[in-house]
Amino acid sequence: MGALIVVLLAATPVENRLESYEAARTALEAKRVELAAQWKKTPKQTRAVARKAVLEYLDQSAFPAWKGTPWEFYGTSTTPGQGTIACGYFVTTVLEQAGFKIERVWLAQQASAVLVNTLAHGTKVEWLHPSDNADAVVQIKKHFKESQLVVIGFDYHVGLLRMEGDEVRFCHSSFIEPASVTCEDPVPSGAFASKLYVVGDVLNDALLDDWLNARAVKNARK
């Protein structure tokens, strides 16, 4: 994941990032179509390839493209680097633009637990009460040993935690410094602090199956 950090910190002109972002979205959709044709014959293997493809897209394209986009409580931007984006909209927009058929606006306006349960798609959701940020990371890694991307609902926030080996990055639209989209170390992050953490695996098999087959994701509650 070291390469991920380098990519995330790279300073790239906004117009170039947008071009790269759109190209990456097109490439990911082409990959999805290709994998969908293989899914019925080899579902397990196909999911593994799909999971890797989505993670690479997020690491190399989506997170870097959105980095620095200003946070605003009512921000609803759909274009990286332009306008403002709230924390819930960041999560739902990034996933929708990755090809997940979710109700971007409705989900972004719900309590974070609804968003987490929707993306968990019937798989386990953990409600954690850690002592501090470091303990939160330890508990999340313990409960989601095989997961590489989880969505977390906090007391007043929501974001994505990218995990690979010993490296962990908290990707979110931060309501405190730097008041923009960032991927950062969660341990010292003020935005990661919470009394409650509602956690679910974003790239679970059920959600990936919906992604592969371009199916609408059912909301946990509506």
Describe the structure.
The protein is an alpha+beta fold and 222 residues long. The chain has one domain (2-212). The chain is built from 8 helices and 6 strands, in the order ααααααβαβββββα. A 6-stranded antiparallel beta sheet has the order 1-6-2-3-4-5, with helices on both faces. β3 (158-164) and β4 (167-173) form a beta hairpin. α1 runs parallel beside α3 (43-66), α2 (14-39) packs antiparallel against α3 (43-66) and α3 (43-66) packs across α8 (205-212). The radius of gyration is 16 Å and the shape is globular. 41% of the residues are buried.
Structure summary:
The protein has 222 residues and is α+β, with helices and mostly antiparallel strands. It has one domain (2-212). 46% of the residues lie in helices and 14% in strands.
Provide the residue-averaged pLDDT.
Answer: 94
The neighbouring-strand order within the major sheet is 1-6-2-3-4-5
Strand content: 5-15%
Instruction: Give the % helix.
Output: 40-55%
Main sheet overview: 6 strands, antiparallel
Which structural class is indicated by helix and strand composition? alpha+beta
In sequence order, what are the helices and strands, one letter per element?
HHHHHHEHEEEEEH
Please mark out the parts with pLDDT under 50 across 5 or more consecutive residues, or reply none. 1-10
| C-alpha geometry | globular
Number of domains: 1
User: Roughly how many Å apart are the termini?
Assistant: 37 Å
Number of helices: 8
